[in-house]
Design goal:
Elements (H helix, E strand, L loop, with lengths): L14 E2 L2 E2 L19 E4 L2 E4 L5 H5 L23 H11 L2
Antiparallel strand pairs: 1-2, 3-4
Length: 95
């Protein structure tokens, strides 16, 4: 159903015949971290995320998993080596 509150004319999964089904009654505007995201769009009532109604909640614990403008840093982890097996390999190699 198309949004009739803040994102006029956009298909919205939260919109019902009775109005917006989001707890706040309408989608919340984007925050500073959302600037530059492909999912953020400007409407007459402000800038809003097209996929999530509450952007501050998505950024509360770190990166938004829907953000298109940032990439998470992948940390290379060194493989754990069992010390017992390592000592056996070292002893085998000395023969």
């Amino acid at each position: 159903m198309q949004c009739a509150t803040v994102k006029e004319g956009v298909e919205c999964a939260l919109m019902t015949d009775k109005g917006c089904g989001f707890a706040a009654g309408a989608c919340l505007p984007i925050i500073e971290q959302c600037q530059g995201c492909d999912r953020a769009q400007e409407f007459s009532s402000g800038k809003f995320c097209l996929t999530f109604p509450d952007p501050p909640l998505k950024w509360k614990r770190g990166l938004c998993n829907l953000a298109t403008h940032v990439q998470p840093e992948l940390k290379a982890q060194a493989a754990k080596i069992n010390p017992l097996k390592a000592s056996k390999r070292a002893a085998r190699g000395k023969r």
